[in-house]
Specification:
With 304 residues, the chain is mainly alpha-helical. It contains 13 helices and no strands.
Amino acid sequence: MWLFFTFSTTFLWGLAELFYKKGARQEEKFAHLKMAVCVGIVMGFHAMFILMTQDVGYDPINMVRYLPVSLCYIVSMALSFFGMRFIEESISDPIENTSGAIVTLMCVVLLGAHVERISVAAILLIVVGILGIGFLEGHGDTDRAKKLGRTMAIVAFAMPFCYAILDALGSFLDVYYLDVERTPLIGVTEDTIELVANTSYELTFALCAVLLLFFMRSRKEKFGALKWQRDKVLAALFETAGQFTYVFAMSGNGAIAAPIISAVCVVSLLLSRIFLKEKLTRTQYFFLACVIIGILTLAVIEGD
């Protein structure tokens, strides 16, 4: 069953990325905030469902204790949603998935972790791919500055990198928070610590959603009828469903599940090409392939 959940997670998160992009309309000023609201509300309902059906002995103070990690994930997603309004999903998603490589580098630099040579080669391949994509952004047909203006083009292209860095920081902090012997979380065991952490994250996201609703209301921005926000709601549902199946996938055979799930960027690229009709140059596809191969190689090696 773990293999079924593994492929389900990969497909669900790939679908989530597709609907994120569809919902991040460039002409809708607060589209990224509305996306965050949808995700927060759905995650809030999921967290309440877990608390009502699972005996985890949850202490609300864990929301405060887990706040540094939660904010890393929430802010990174909000920045990603903003970038999606201007950057092709085929480009942004592989860049965002380099967060795993950044976590590896952080563990090496800050924790003195040992990394195999092939992992170093995979990271270098990712760097080459990103540098290539970055170079192409300012030249020829991919010159986004012509459409958005130089400042906005730089800001938009920086968003996937901001996501990768913040998401990596959240994952790095999780190394400490999910160690039951050192964690600041209280009332947790080996069996409940991940569930408690995830519930804290989802409840915090729900609170942020409420705050964002008040913020938009203060700016006289209406959220709009749900039928106009269908893509955002679907993205939130697929995101949360993938989060649910992810737990079962990793509990079965994490060493094999992790590299399969990391292929979500491949699924996203294919779906974007088929449904969003995104077209890139051959050179762009080459550098994207470098990034994806590096990500998959790193996932396989680090998962062993």
